[in-house]
Amino acid sequence: MTELAAVKAALKTQAVETPSWAYGNSGTRFKVFAQAGVPRNPFEKLDDAAKVHEFTGAAPSVALHIPWDKVDDYAALAKYAQDRGVKLGTINSNTFQDDDYKLGSVCHADAVVRRKALDHLLECVDIMDATGSKDLKLWFADGTNYPGQDDIRERQDRLAEALAAVYERLGDDQRMLLEYKFFEPAFYTTDVPDWGTAYAHCLKLGPKAQVVVDTGHHAPGTNIEFIVATLLREGKLGGFDFNSRFYADDDLMVGAADPFQLFRIMYEVIRGGGFSPDVAFMLDQCHNIEAKIPAIIRSVMNVQEATAKALLVDRDALGVAQRGGDVLEANAVLMDAYNTDVRPLLREVREEMGLAPDPVAAYRASGWAAKIAEERVGGEQAGWGA
Question: Ranges for the Xylose isomerase-like TIM barrel domain (predicted)?
């Protein structure tokens, strides 16, 4: 197989999971802007997700968020997804919206609140059993706003206790992915603030506990690709939540703010053996002002473009330059790949897969946007409060 054929073959296997909540209304803490045609229930979210996969060929699974996507029959929801050419993916828990969680969930000082949060997490594992999902993604808004508000070490003990209980409940083919975020909504301490804290808990738990890297959850200037390389080296990178930020956790479309960073991350993924089903590529974005389905399609394409460029890095030439201490040549090899226009290559890949070469144009020509705007009238649109 030629080098170009190998790159094409790899690109044809890429899978990017889309988040159910990205199809619903979202916004800032000031206002949520509603859009025509937004899904009113998890089934309509799956209809939209199926369109993204239809036109990209690279979005075969949909992450659920509980209780936002709660239904009476999860097996029926899984069957509905299958009938539309997609499947249910990661189950995301929610321990941040109830009033009881004002001072924390699994790290709360009150054992009653901690039990409520743990019961929800265990319910999410039950849902995994019903949907066939492999991954449970955990993000905790737990933390403190003021020095002395709570005991920092005891909160870590409470967190460890809850994680151990969930880990024990997991099936043999299931994993937990622990997400970190350095601030917000807590501003003094966050209970899982960085990759080191997440890694320490996952290491103690065992092989079914992995770290997930949200690309928006870092301080400005953080070298995310170093984190990725280190977690891959330790066998603890479980997946990504892809998005972009200019300031903090902006949840913008992946690659919108810093496409070069996305390329650097994808190079380390490929270099470290992470381009495999063991590392989940997931989007976690809020499309507040842009049309949702085209934005998700564009996000998938952005990941594909960064991946294609990373696959084109001449690793032999790069290795020679690195071992020879040729700083400029090493950087030039990397930049040559990044500066390659891979859009013609990806158009070829799509055509070879029987897809339209331009997924966004194909979607716009499909009439789906007009159809759902006309049909999805009445009821309550999915999303959070306006």
Answer: 65-244
Residue 1 has a pLDDT of 66
Is 194 a domain residue?
Answer: yes
pLDDT value of residue 223: 98
Residue 176 maps to a domain: yes
Domain extent for 227: 9-376
Are the beta carbons of 255 and 187 closer than 8 angstroms? no
The DSSP call for residue 253 is P
Q: Would residue 386 count as lying in a domain?
A: no
Q: Which two tokens stand for residue 60?
A: 């075969």
CATH of the domain at 176: 3.20.20.150
For the sheet with 237-242, list strands across it. 18-19, 61-65, 87-92, 135-138, 175-179, 209-214, 237-242, 280-283
Q: How many folded domains does the chain comprise?
A: 1
Q: State mean pLDDT over 315-328.
A: 98
Give the pLDDT mean for 223-240.
98
Residue 4 counted as domain residue: no
CB-count burial class (<10 Å; 0-12, 13-18, 19+) for 152:
middle
Closest CA to 353 of 4, 54, 146, 36: 54
